[in-house]
Amino acid sequence: MEPVDYKILKVTFTEGVALITISRPEVLNALNSDVLAVLNDALNDLAKQRDLKVIVITGEGKGFVAGADIAEMADMTNNQAFCFAKMGKATFERLEKFAVPVIAAVNGYALGGGLELALACDFRIAAKSAKFGAPEVTLGLIPGYAGTQRLSRLTGPGNALYLILTAEMVNAEDAFRMGLVQKVVEDAQLMEEVMKMARKIAANGSPAVNKAKEIIRKGLDKDFKAACKLESEAFGKLFDYPSTREGMKAFLEKRKPNW
Q1: 215-252: burial string, b at 16+ Cβ within 10 Å, e else
Q2: Looking at residue 178, what DSSP letter applies?
Q3: CA atoms of 39 and 118, how far apart (whole Å)
Q4: What is the mean predicted confidence (pLDDT) over 66-86?
Q5: How many helices (H) and strands (E) does the chain have?
Q6: CA 258 to chain centre
Q7: Residue 3: pLDDT above 80?
Q8: Which phi and psi (to 5°) does residue 14 adopt?
Q9: Quick one: pLDDT band at residue 259, thresholds 50, 70, 90?
């Protein structure tokens, strides 16, 4: 796949890894209807790439995404706001359920809708200078893209209530302690570290990686016994894949697998 410039979104594709860069640096990559629509277009295009193994999302310039575009929201009616939230939820749910792993490379402010975008990714790697927050209550609002639900499930209700009710920004180290991010790296090393991690994931057996993501996500909404049943079924089905046979054969023969 050749690099694609969607004007407010840039996509490059190398070695099975797609890098999506939100490109509205003049407004710290704030999300509006256009960004959500174009992100959906990009995901449609990426879903057709049979050799896609990992997606990385980041923001251009000094921010990951500094929130939803208040200029667009200011004059919305009740119904328009509902539809705007519904659109964002659908886009982020699509990311969450995308077949391949999605990594957020958080390079600056991840606030409001930007925090919610990061939460919809499978995990988050942050630059030391990154800042996280849910400032919606300062505008008389609450998170609208499933942020109340994802944040509470990820960090626990206490941390979610703390971040949302105080609207306080936290730094990358505090976010790490809360379980909001999985790793913190030096600013200058962020993309290098994230792409190295993405390539490491891409080098593993794709059906197994994708199935692990699917079962973990599906299991979150089920009780433990039902989730374990899903896991057992998926474990068995993987034995139908040539990659599973190759992985075990390569291990026994003490060589790297030829996926």
Answers
A1: beeebeeeeeeebeeebeebeeebeeeebbeebeeeee
A2: H
A3: 14
A4: 92
A5: 11, 11
A6: 29
A7: no
A8: -145, 135
A9: confident
Alpha helices, H only, 30-112: 33-47, 70-73, 78-97
Residue 22: count of CB within 10 angstroms of its CB:
26
Active site residues: 116, 136
The CATH code that applies to domain 206-252 is 1.10.12.10
Domain boundaries, the chain: 4-202, 206-252
CA 44, distance to chain mean position in Å, is 16
pLDDT at 158 over 80: yes
Q: Dig out the tokens for 97 from the structure.
A: 């359920």
pLDDT tens digits for range 163-200: 999 999 999 999 999 999 999 999 999 999 999 999 99
Instruction: State how beta strands 9-14 and 17-22 pair.
Output: antiparallel
Fold of the 4-202 domain: 2-enoyl-CoA Hydratase; Chain A, domain 1 (3.90.226)
Calculate the CA dihedral of residues 80, 86, 88, 92 and round it to 10 degrees: 180
Give the whole-number percent of the chain exceeding pLDDT 70: 99
d(CA 119, CA 149) in angstroms, rounded, equals 10
When pLDDT is cut at 50, 70 and 90, the band that residue 98 belongs to is very high
DSSP string spanning 57-76? EEESTTEEE--B-HHHHTT-
Provide the 3-class DSSP secondary structure of residue 156: coil
- pLDDT > 70? residue 135: yes
